[in-house]
Structure formats: C-alpha cells, structure tokens
Amino acid sequence: MVVGCNNLKYNEWISKQDPYVCVEYGSYKSRTCVCKDGGKNPTFQEKFVYNVIEGLGELNISIWNKKTFTNDDFIGSGKIQLAKVLSNGYDDSAWPLKSKTGRHAGEVHLTMHYSTANNQETPYEPLAPLYGASSAQYPQDSSYSRDCTPAY
C-alpha cells in the first residue's frame, strides 16, 4: 500500500503541488490518484496487488506533480527493496527519494504484505489503517472507484 510521502521536494511557486505516485514492478505499472494540494506531505492510502516475479527483488517508485497546462513535473524516485517483505511477510517502512540530480527529494511510506512468506505473522501492527483501492495500470482510461483526480 502506498501510504503517503513526507518532505517532498517542492516544485510549485504559487500554489500547493498536486503529487501522485507511480509504481513499477516488472511489467506491472500502477499509479495513485492525485493528492490535490497535497504539498510536501501528501496522503494516498492506496492498495496495489502484484504477483511476485522470481528474481526481481525491488519496486521502482516515482513521484510526480500533476500540472494542468504543461507536462507533469518529476519530483523524485527510488528503488524499494523487497527482501524484508519476501522473508517476513510484512514491511512498513519509509524509503528515500532522489531528484534527477541525486539530491534528497523526500521519502515515500509503503506498507507491504506478502501472503506466502516464510513467516506469515505480522511482527507489529501497521502504522496506518488498511484501505482497499482500485488496482489498475497507469495511465487509466476508466474513472476511479473513489473521488480523485486522474493524473493524465
């Protein structure tokens, strides 16, 4: 689950930025809804489900700022290591993001579950409640199941 982001690099001059998150795992591609006026600390609470790909131990995450009249602005990206969730069945962590120049661009908070891990017990309670959201490829052609602004 994409819980949210903290201390994102700020790309707006006048208004608050409208961030969204893109997740890539092998050929799977998903994106969150836009967090309108989410600023530096947006909240998403969106769940995506992937089949585990043997030998692929990381997710690629990128954060974008939705623009109305121009191309969306890149905020930052990061690689999410899956070793902990694959072995323990659970990982609730914040991961660093880097800008195009390699500077710190904030962090993304993910809660991940893997149902067939060696240890199926959750070592501790999740920091955020678990919510269901649509799991779809981005960009989406259909409307979202809840009120949110598409990022295209």
Automatic annotation (TrEMBL):
Residues 1-96 form the C2 domain. Transmembrane segments: none annotated. InterPro entries: C2_dom, C2_domain_sf, Ingression_C2_domain. It comes from the Eukaryota. PROSITE patterns: C2. This is Extensin. The lineage of its organism: Eukaryota, Viridiplantae, Streptophyta, Embryophyta, Tracheophyta.
